[in-house]
């Protein structure tokens, strides 16, 4: 298939046939499913981003996730800081505007960081930085139950998309469900609020989140419908806007899938530009490999490239912890 990396649009993929049939032992020959697989292959190869349509997550829940996030960020700082993110909280909790840094510059966003629970001793030394449970606010009271329900549904959608991606890469359907890969997958979720800005130029006052790639397998972004802010970089260094499309998630490939696919699928650089006076809420869910997965190019991907590995082996948890430890102005709190 043609690799078109100077994309100017982001494809929309209706994954309903894949979700319906990917767990059925005979379903993977289905014509509609294979059509989705072909579209995934093209999108992951050429763009690294696509809109996920037909995901089956109820719109009321998708909205509730954004609305409860918005109500929390409307509270006074004093209230929000009751669940402050610290090194002692396993980097879980609330961070103020400009406390998160990307490439050395503070980002114009506030956020709550959530991770799958890690109990003391799990993963040995590797797990210590993120040991803990998530911190939930008193208000809105429904936040915890809304988010936990949402995480459960998004994990299942993501597992099925990864089945489609496994087929798209030419591997067995359950490639990523293997015990040592993402059979006991980790997850991350960020509830993010971007303050409105009057800046209409793309200067440092308008960087909601600096240019970066995501760390794991697959990201599903639930963004406000009314503000366009997420931008994706193509190979000509042009920024393509991922305008919100109601009823869809923006979906993109993370660093670990880039490594497993031996670079056939890229973790594409993206950023968030805040140049509208309107407050924007966005909630990315990150579906990740096992915390302790050792990730290296898959044999069936490498073989298409003369058996040459384009990436070195990386342990996902080490990659994540390295990022977390450099993501904050000061984590000595
Ligand atoms: N868990 C994920 N993928 N989070 C993405 C955050 C990207 C911004 C972060 N400050 C950075 O510099 O990476
Ligand atoms: O705010 C967004 O829409 C995306 C944020 C993002 O790229 C991230 O948190 O990794
Ligand atoms: Fe991102």
TrEMBL record:
Cofactor field: L-ascorbate
Reactions catalysed: L-homoarginine + 2-oxoglutarate + O2 = 6-hydroxy-L-homoarginine + succinate + CO2
Organism: Zostera marina (Eelgrass)
InterPro entries in alphabetical order: DIOX_N, IPNS-like_FE2OG_OXY, IPNS-like_sf, Iron_ascorbate_oxido_reductase, Oxoglu/Fe-dep_dioxygenase_dom
Subcellular location: Cytoplasm
This protein's GO CC annotations: cytoplasm
Keywords: Cytoplasm, Dioxygenase, Iron, Metal-binding, Oxidoreductase
Main localization of the protein described in the UniProt heading: cytoplasm
Membership in a protein family: Belongs to the iron/ascorbate-dependent oxidoreductase family.
Source species, domain of life: Eukaryota
Molecular function, one GO term: 2-oxoglutarate-dependent dioxygenase activity
Domain Fe2OG dioxygenase intervals: 185-289
Name assigned to this protein: 2-oxoglutarate (2OG) and Fe(II)-dependent oxygenase superfamilyprotein
